[in-house]
Write a structure and sequence with these properties.
homodimer, 200 residues, alpha/beta, globular, binds manganese (II) ion, manganese (chains A, B), inorganic diphosphate phosphatase activity (chains A, B), EC 3.6.1.1 (chains A, B), hydrolase (chains A, B)
C-alpha cells in the first residue's frame, strides 16, 4: 500500500530555515514510510542560494498553492494562515513543526504539532531525528546547520538557546564543516551587496 | 534562583486524562528544574475517584481560575479557550501537551506545543518521560495507565493507536498491575450506577 502524497512547506517569502526545514522534515517522514514532497513558496534569497550551492543540493519546486496536488500538507517554520499556501483552507494540515507563536491557526481534526520557543525550526527537527534514531545525510546536515546559523545569527540572536548550539555543533560535525568560519562566510554572502544580479 | 511557580491544568469537567496528565506533566517539569503545581478544574468523576483511591494518590487542588496565583500556565488535554481557566487571557500559556484539534487558541509569544493525533495525552507524556530519560514513579505510572484505559476504552476506541498500546503495557508494568483485569474493573467503576451518592 503506497501512502498518499503530502506536501511539506515553509512560509511565504522563504528564508533559509523555511526551505531547509521542509527538505529535512520531508526526508525524515519518507524514511519512516510516508510519501512527501518538499516545496518552497518562493525563489531562494541570496543567502539561501549560497547555501544550496555550497552543499550542492537541488532547490525544491516552487509553488504558493497546493493546486490539487495533495489532500494533506505539513507546515514547517510557520503556522499562520496568511503565511501559508493560498489554498490552505482546501486541504488538511496533519503536521506542524515550528518555533513561532500560534495565531490564525485552527484545525478540524487532531494533528501532530511540535513547537518549541527556541532559535530555529531546524533545531527541533535535529531533535526529532535523534528521537527517532534516523541518520541525517551529510548534505542535509549542512543545510540544517546553515538554517540554524541564519536564524540565530551564528548563535548570537536573543532567541538562540543552548539547544540551538548543541544542534549546530552536532550538525556541523556530520556535515564536515567548521561552523564558525563557514557561518561568517554564509552570513556575509547573504548581505553581500556587490552581486547586483540577484537583487530585486 | 527559584523558578517562578506555574500552574498545570486540564480541561473543565475533567475526565481521568485531564487530571492525571496535569499531575504527570507537573512532575516531569519539576524533575527538570521547574516549579509547577498541578490543579484540576473540578471534582473527580466516579471513575477518576476510583483511580485515585486505587493508587492512593491525593487529588489536586480544585480551581477554575488562576486568580493571580501564577503569571504563566501549562495546559494539558485541551487548548480551546472555553475549556480552560476562566481568566486564561490574563496569563501566558508557555506549554501545551494535547491530543485534540487546535481551535480558539492563540498566543502572543512562541511556546512549547506538543500534540499528536493519538488516543490519550498521557501516552504523549509517557513518550516525553522516555525522551528525557526521567523515571516514572510507580503510582504516577498507575494513574497514567488508568488515563489511557479511560480515553481508549481499554484500547478499543477508534482513536486508539499502537503507541497507546505500547504506553499502556509499559506503564502497567511499572505500576505492577494486570492492565486488562484492572481496566475492566476501572471502567466498570466509572459506569457503576449503584452509588447514588456521587451522582448529580
Ligand atoms: Mn523563517
Ligand atoms: Mn525559523
Ligand atoms: Mn479529556
Ligand atoms: Mn485525553
Amino acid at each position: 500500500m503506497t501512502e498518499e502524497k503530502q506536501l511539506v512547506v515553509g512560509h511565504k517569502n522563504p528564508d533559509t530555515d523555511a526551505v531547509v526545514a521542509a527538505i529535512s522534515y520531508s526526508y525524515l517522514q519518507n524514511q519512516t514510510g510516508m510519501n512527501t514532497e518538499a516545496v518552497a513558496q518562493g525563489e531562494p534569497n541570496k543567502e539561501t542560494k549560497f547555501v544550496f550551492n555550497k552543499f550542492d543540493y537541488k532547490y525544491p519546486r516552487i509553488t504558493t498553492a497546493v493546486n490539487g496536488d495533495a489532500k494533506k500538507v505539513m507546515l514547517v517554520d510557520h503556522n499562520e494562515k496568511q503565511q501559508s499556501f493560498d489554498d490552505i483552507d482546501n486541504v488538511e494540515v496533519t503536521h506542524v513543526v515550528d518555533h513561532h507563536r500560534i495565531a490564525n491557526f485552527e484545525t478540524a481534526l487532531p494533528l501532530y504539532y511540535r513547537a518549541e520557543p527556541i532559535g530555529c525550526t531546524s533545531t527541533i527537527l535535529w531533535e526529532m531525528y535523534n528521537e527517532q534514531d534516523v541518520e541525517i545525510p551529510a548534505k542535509i546536515a549542512g543545510l540544517m546547520a546553515s538554517a540554524i546559523i541564519s536564524d540565530t545569527l551564528l548563535l548570537k540572536s536573543p532567541t538562540s538557546t543552548s539547544k540551538d548550539e548543541d544542534a549546530l555543533k552536532s550538525l556541523a560535525k556530520t556535515a564536515g564543516i567548521d561552523y564558525e568560519a563557514y557561518g561568517m562566510e554564509m552570513l556575509k554572502a547573504g548581505t553581500d551587496l556587490d552581486d547586483k544580479s540577484t537583487q530585486e
